[in-house]
Amino acid sequence: MEFGKVLPSEINKIDFTLPLDRPETIALLKKHARPKGKEVKVHVGCAKWGRKEWIGKIYPKGTKEADFLDNYAKHFNCIEFNAMFYQIFPKSTIEKWVSKVGKDFLFCPKFTNSISHIRRLKNAKEVTDSFLDAIYTFGKHLGPCFLQLSDNYGPKEFDSMKAYLKSLPKDLDVFVEVRHKDWYAEGNFARLFEMLAETGFGTVITDASGRRDCVHMGLTTPKAFIRFVGNGLHPTDYTRIDDWVKRIKKWIAAGIQEIYFFMHQHEEMHSPELCAYTIKELNRVCKLQIPEVKFIRQKGLFD
Description:
By secondary structure, the protein is α/β, with parallel strands linked by helices. The chain has a single domain (14-286), classed as Alpha-Beta Barrel (TIM Barrel), CATH 3.20.20. Helix content is 33%, strand content 15%. The chain has a six-stranded parallel sheet with strand order 1-8-7-6-5-4. Strands 2-3 form a two-stranded parallel sheet. Helix 7 links the parallel strand 5 and strand 6 (202-207). The longest helix is centred in the C-terminal third of the chain and has 20 residues, at 235-254. The chain is globular.
């Protein structure tokens, strides 16, 4: 993932402090807190399963590509399914994937680029219908979807975005990621934030080094969808995760219902290590019981 990438020499100059929660976030969690006694749902995963670099790390030596998903699902309870961005897969393929995962595993597909980047949410009914027809094949394994908009899709497109979102099925759990910098001007973001809250769609929080504006800490539903972009296991990757764990603990105490935390690295070979650290700390600090990543070679992982 190249979004928000900075030169290695710049990393230590960045203020990675998480902003305070927006007042609307605090109010929303208070209003829509999960019922007393109900456990929060927390999912942590990567963006892809097809990484040959993970053979000998979390996939056994000799693992064939056809068996990557089987092995990925032994370590993680969800996948930020970026592959759907590039093509809409046949139902038969999706059914095969579903057969490879456990009962609680979730696929979180990204809207295809034909909808978001080519048609820019206009005249997209036909391709949207095809996308929806495909992803509903995931059945109980369908997690939230996320709609990523191009960095040249700005606030001038507000009306077309609202119209498109309102056209989607009411039972579809959708989170929206905006990248154009003008969205983060306070007036524009407040308008976007209000619209998403009114229509029941979530916000994606993207924590990338070079785009601190995207760490907006605004929730429009009692669910969080976080995309974390690390820097190759740089020491700040771990301190940033520590801060996120503290914030998630606060959100859990405030009554958040669901959390989806997806790990990215500019070199995805490093994602399992930081995912493992994230899960370990969430379990320790937040008293959760997320299944932990099991490495082929454990020695020295967290030394």
